[in-house]
UniProtKB/TrEMBL annotation:
Pfam family, one: Claudin_2
Protein name (database record): CLDN1 protein
Transmembrane portions of the chain: 141-163, 175-194, 214-237
Localization in the cell: Membrane
Highest taxon, organism lineage: Eukaryota
Gene3D superfamilies: 1.20.140.150
Natural source organism: Loxia leucoptera
């Protein structure tokens, strides 16, 4: 018995560690602004040319998708799930040499921004609603929270399981982690699809390079960790159940 118990204990400890790491990664990726990054090869003169107007448009309440995407293109923008950032000269004298002093300024997407309709032509509300992009955006906003919620719920069940000295709830914890992994995969898929569709509508300018950032990578790493944790939880519970049944049969005999 003792030998077996060690194996389950080890599997469960590893599963818990994986679960914890993936939760931290998910939380970090939701909270950071580097899901997608634009590298503008000649940003400085662009900014000083256009002056404050870019920044004012970027921050304004009615900045539509086209306005803020253009600003992201022109000023080394980065985008998170919750915020968008651009890098602009620090000082108010736009005519002084800008490259000395650059500062990154961010603005949050409001809740209504997260649920607002996307248009077939970004920025033109007469062009009709682009349902694909609208729902991809809403999903990419909701799925990470569902994923973290499932894992926290799984952790609670796991704690109860420890308190009751029973391994049966480990199967439930495993299933919840599996669902969380599916949500995380869904989130990554929605994000990639959304960016692809946006760039089809608003192609990147010649001198701008775009790439997925490290916040996005954290979410990508989080999914396999969730699946591994799920597999370990379920394996430990099932194998232990078999052992237990065998032990009972042996005692009766």
């Amino acid at each position: 018995g003792a030998m077996m118990d060690n194996r389950f204990a080890t599997a469960l400890v590893i599963a818990c560690v994986l679960s914890l790491i993936s939760t931290i990664y998910m939380a970090a990726s939701i909270g950071t602004d580097f899901w997608y990054e634009y590298h503008t090869l000649s940003p400085a003169e662009n900014v000083s040319e256009a002056g404050r107007s870019i920044w004012e448009e970027f921050v304004s309440k009615d900045a539509d998708e086209k306005t803020y995407t253009d600003a992201l293109f022109r000023c080394n923008g980065t985008v998170g799930l919750w915020r968008r950032c651009i890098t602009v000269p620090k000082n108010s004298h736009w005519y002084s040499p800008p490259e000395n002093d650059m500062t990154t300024n961010c603005i949050s997407f409001s809740l209504s921004d997260q649920f607002v309709e996307k248009y077939i032509e970004p920025g033109n509300h007469n062009s009709g609603t682009d349902l694909n992009r609208t729902y991809l955006w809403r999903l990419q906003f909701l799925l990470p929270f569902v994923s973290i919620g499932l894992m926290c719920f799984g952790a609670l069940i796991g704690l109860c399981a420890c308190a009751c000295r029973s391994l049966y709830p480990a199967i439930a914890t495993g299933v919840l982690h599996f669902l969380a992994g599916l949500c995380t995969l869904g989130l990554v898929g929605c994000y990639v699809a959304g960016i692809e569709l946006l760039h089809r509508k608003l192609p990147l300018p010649e001198d701008v390079r775009g790439e997925f950032g490290w916040s996005f990578c954290l979410a990508c790493v989080s999914a396999p960790l969730q699946f591994m944790a799920a597999a370990l939880f379920i394996w430990a519970a099932r194998t232990n159940r078999k052992e237990f049944t065998l032990l009972k049969a042996y005692r009766v005999a």
